[in-house]
Amino acid sequence: MSQEMFQKERTLKMRERLIGQSCRLFFPQDPVKIVRARGQYLYDENGTQYLDCISNVHHVGHCHPLVTQAASAQMELLNANARFLHDNIVHYAERLAATLPKKLCIFYFVNSGSEANDLALRLARQYTRNEDVIVLDHAYHGHLTSLIDISPYKFRKLEGQKEWVHVAPLPDTYRGLYRRDHPNPGQAYADTVKDLIDEAQRKGRKISSFFVESLPSVGGQVILPSGYFPKVAEYVRAAGGVFVADEVQTGFGRVGSHFWAFQLQGEDFCPDIVTMGKPMGNGHPLSCVVTTEEIAGAFTANGVEYFNTFGGNPVSCAIGLAVLDVMEKEDLRGNAVRVGNHLKELLKQLQAKHPIIGDVRGVGLFVGLELVKDRVTLTPATEEAALLVGRLKMKHICLSTDGPWNSVIKFKPPMCFSLEDAERVSAEISHVLREFEDASNQEQQKQ
Q: What pTM was estimated for this model as a whole?
């Protein structure tokens, strides 16, 4: 028997009473109550349709029938502790292995991106016998205590930086230390990591790993300069550490041209550990760590069994396999290229018309629109970004902000996002920005 559906106001009051207040909602001043979804569309309790530009978890589209059918069929047949022998987990691992460099061939299935990154941290430390971690400024790797410690985005607001954590500059070529006019920003930013390693070693500390999102998301939808990963990996490995690529936000073809975002750094580049999560299960809790035989062997050699009750269970793996099937059948990587390129072109056309748009950047369906008060000083337009998101919500478009100053409008929609969707969003953004400019001109005339 289904539960009674409450009025929105009652649901909100119950949430305020029962759910921790640090668990925040989108659009907190006037939340959207979503009761169903399909593809790239959300529907509220009144049947109003919203265009979803931010649900990167629902990778192949909300409630995709092939995914829900696979989940239902396997749930009716068997779901069991992952320590029972079953075909689904090995079929799924084999399918994932086909998308990765051959060196990455040993899989550990878990339930969330945070859990995957925590396990990656354990693997790196067990293999290297070192403790220290290098991360990028503004990075976020998960909500577990171990990951808060390596997430400047979080620890700067809490207890601060641990002595075993070393923070490298974010390789942001728009507003960072080295910009697009630099002859080799990839090398320059890699050298900042080398400087950190040298400083740590002078203090007698030893590096276990360099932890990095293949495309920093919370940092502001940043596209890293070419050559950065290979050079950093060279420096980190020379120091006895390993390279960990966090693909929780960007994996599974979101960049379009490649299956994994780290592959943008060169076909020959291979991390030592890759973590994946959000899009794997299309909304079902499913994530994974993949690594080399050598690192996995060191983890096994410690003599402590690793087991995960739910990680890799038959239902989760059936869902994961269905997601891969849909991606192939519907050419969602190709769609990411076509729609992502069109969206970026439309946003660049807006940039030429609206001075508040400082930068348009992205690859595939991972796109950022950075707003600034001044294109020379690059002062973040934080308030304007929030206002834009609020106005778009009134037009039934769901977007959100990110970046160190919440001045970047981020696009990470379901991969079925269409050319028409891109045109709609672009047109509505232009309309709102014109309203901002008209209001500003009127205010100046009054003065």
A: 0.96
Point out which residues pair with 92 in neighbouring strands. none
The pair of three-digit structure tokens given for residue 95, joined into one six-digit string: 């399918």
- Which H/E stretch holds residue 244? strand 242-246
Mind giving me the DSSP string for 371-430?
A: EBS-TTT--B-HHHHHHHHHHHHHTTEE-EEETTTT-EEEE---TT--HHHHHHHHHHHH
The C-alpha angle 42, 38, 88, rounded to 5 degrees, equals: 130
Of 224, 197, 201, 191, the closest CA to residue 134 belongs to 197
Q: Beta-strand (E) ranges in 95-206?
A: 106-110, 132-136, 165-168
Start-to-end CA distance of the chain, whole Å, equals 63
Q: Is 402 in contact with 218 (CB distance < 8 Å)?
A: yes
pLDDT in tens, the chain (447 residues): 356 678 999 999 999 999 999 999 999 989 999 999 999 999 999 999 999 999 999 999 999 999 999 999 999 999 999 999 999 999 999 999 999 999 999 999 999 999 999 999 999 999 999 999 999 999 999 998 899 999 988 888 887 889 999 999 999 999 999 999 999 999 999 999 999 999 999 999 999 999 999 999 999 999 999 999 999 999 999 999 999 999 999 999 999 999 999 999 999 999 999 999 999 999 999 999 999 999 999 999 998 889 899 999 999 999 999 999 999 999 999 999 999 999 999 999 999 999 999 999 999 999 999 999 999 999 999 999 999 999 999 999 999 999 999 999 999 999 999 999 999 999 999 999 999 988 888 877 776
CA distance 31 to 9: 10
Q: What backbone torsions phi and psi does residue 202 show, to the nearest 5 degrees?
A: -65, -25
Q: 363: closest CA among 172, 158, 221?
A: 221
At 126, list the tokens.
Answer: 């067990």
Q: What is the DSSP string of 63-77?
A: T-HHHHHHHHHHHHH
Two tokens, residue 400: 């959100």
Report residue 94 as tokens.
């084999």
Question: Residue 216 has which token pair?
Answer: 């920093």
Tell me if 343 sits within 8 A of 425, measured CB to CB.
Answer: yes
C-alpha 209/C-alpha 120 separation (Å) is: 10
